[in-house]
Design a protein that fits this description.
single chain; alpha/beta; D-Maltodextrin-Binding Protein, domain 2; 2 domains; five-stranded mixed sheet; 10 helices; 11 strands; binds prephenic acid; Preph_deHydtase; lyase; prephenate dehydratase; prephenate dehydratase activity; EC 4.2.1.51
């Protein structure tokens, strides 16, 4: 099993100063400038599409991606997918009108896997906006479980990387990378094993019938993940949206 530390090393997560530096890095492969106008308008920007758009996110119901979908458009129909590639392919193939994709977390840094998936489809997809989603991670387990019964804690590797101090303070807990935060919660509920917990949101606890054993265990209280919103290039709106059209959070303001 790959440790959180090595995952973080491979995927660009490191200390907080490094995170700030990386926030100034431009991700290559996605064309287009990042303008000040775009920065101001991005949170208001909605591509022209039908009401109740289908918006894909990575994870199970209760994932932060689902929260990001509804933060972006309260009337959206969230569409869960297993991987970042599947999220984007849902848009490419017309199964979803848009997708949200995590590209940067305040603690863990750039989400390399998601950015790579986006870069591979750069000619087909367009970044049309972004959503900053607050991220509070909790230790979840079955009702009746306690911190004494839980021995293994599962979560998305990017989420595990956000809880380094908590995991170091609990050396008896074995961190197990899982495909998704809410997916880990769902799988804990299904397995019915009081020795297994998940690091996920309160929403995931409610969704999957788990209890919160420890709240807000991420390294920084004011934690967030930035998600970009992407649509198919063919579905570009009109010229008035041009300045908002091509944004990647973490890109410099200089239009690089
Ligand atoms: O697992 C989730 O809930 C996700 O939405 C994925 C993801 C990520 O891949 O960065 C998104 C936000 C959180 O920072 C942790 C994990």
């Amino acid at each position: 099993m790959e440790g959180v530390g090595s995952y973080a090393m491979r995927h660009g997560a490191a200390d907080r100063k490094g995170c700030v530096l990386r926030a100034a890095c431009c991700v290559r492969g996605i064309p287009g400038p990042f303008t000040q106008h775009a920065a101001r308008s991005r949170s208001q920007y909605h591509p022209r599409m039908t009401s109740s758009p289908r918006v894909a996110f990575q994870g199970a119901p209760g994932a932060f991606g689902e929260e990001a979908v509804l933060r972006w458009r309260a009337d959206a129909q969230p569409e869960p997918r297993g991987t970042f590639a599947a999220v984007l392919d849902a848009v490419v193939h017309g199964e979803a009108d848009a997708a949200v994709l995590p590209v940067e977390n305040r603690i863990a840094g750039l989400v390399a896997e998601a950015r790579a998936a986006l870069g591979e489809r750069a000619t087909l997809l367009r970044v049309v906006g972004e959503v900053t989603q607050p991220i509070a991670l909790c230790l979840l387990a079955l009702p009746g479980a306690t911190t004494a019964t839980v021995r293994v804690v599962r979560s998305h590797p990017v989420a595990l990387a956000q809880c380094g101090a908590f995991l170091r303070a609990h050396p008896d807990l074995v961190a197990e990378p899982w495909w998704d935060t809410a997916g880990a919660a769902r799988d804990v509920a299904r397995a019915g094993d009081p020795a297994v917990g998940a690091l996920a949101s309160r929403l995931a606890a409610e969704r999957w019938g788990l209890v919160v054993l420890a709240a807000e265990v991420q390294d920084l209280a004011d934690n967030w993940t930035r998600f970009v919103v992407v649509t198919r290039r063919a579905e570009r709106a009109d010229a008035s949206d041009a300045a908002s059209g091509e944004i990647l959070p973490g890109a410099p303001g200089a239009g690089g």
